[in-house]
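DM between two lab members

TW: hey, do you still have the Thioredoxin reductase entry open?
JB: yeah, one sec
JB: this one, 314 aa:
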Amino acid sequence: MTTTAEHIKCLIIGSGPAGYTAAIYAARANMQPVMYQGLQPGGQLTITNDVENFPGYPDGVMGPSMMEDLKKQAERFGTDIRYGLATAVDFSSHPHKITIDENKELTADAVIIATGASAKWLGLESEARLNGSGVSACAVCDGFFYRNMDVAIVGAGDTAAEEATYLANLASKVYMIVRKSEMRASKIMQQRVLDNPKIEVLFDTVTDEVLGEHAVEGVRVKNVLSHECRDITVQGFFVAIGHEPNSKIFQPYLHHDEQGYLKTIPGTSKTNVDGVFACGDVQDFTYRQAVTAAGTGCMAALDAERYLAALGLH
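TW: and the structure you got?
JB:
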């Protein structure tokens, strides 16, 4: 017995600032958008504490609260927001074919990809084994559990510096493990770290192993210049070394760079496949900010509207 795939005029894959903004614009344009939120409804901002640099919030806003506001706004205009993960696509013909949760078949005239990016890990066996038992990629989510304890964080960029500073408000001591002789973070974030008496930066240092059987008890670090190892006693181990775009299922059809970020035609959200648009962090390796993600979400909806209108489908 065969079942007819559900047909959608405008499908949005993924949520977050890009997806929700695309949904707001698409719904207001009467494109009847359907959104599948993915594994992390609301995207990375749901694991962010204070958002102070998004326009319109003079006193700042909590990330999860901001995402709930965007979701409600998208729903207000008629977006059909659903739980589910896109697990396969076929962009070789039109309408485009999408599989949700490995069993639900969809077709769509226009597809907006807003799947964002996910945290990278070091790849250590001990890191994976103790993930959730003292190992975390989200200081804001889990920092509370390490109040008045010693913790370590790996990374050298703005995110690592921000999370180290956040952890210092809770923990007794924060060791920041930096592979090179300097941080990549912006000057103001570096200064905040270096001026914080609770943070000790270990330059030219890598993580050799996370210590502990059933929970994190410490971390073995190695100096890359002297090759000397030493053990540091910590109860929490945080990883902040960047993100990987969630683009794997699209890569057979869409142009992408060596890291997997989807390529769009400059000045647009258009991919190399007609009717497929990309927005947010899945295509932005440069800025990766909530406000730029929202901007590209707007672009994607407008590009999709014009595409459908040109085909006489809107």
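TW: got it. The chain has two domains: 6-118+243-310, 121-239. The chain has seven helices and 19 strands.
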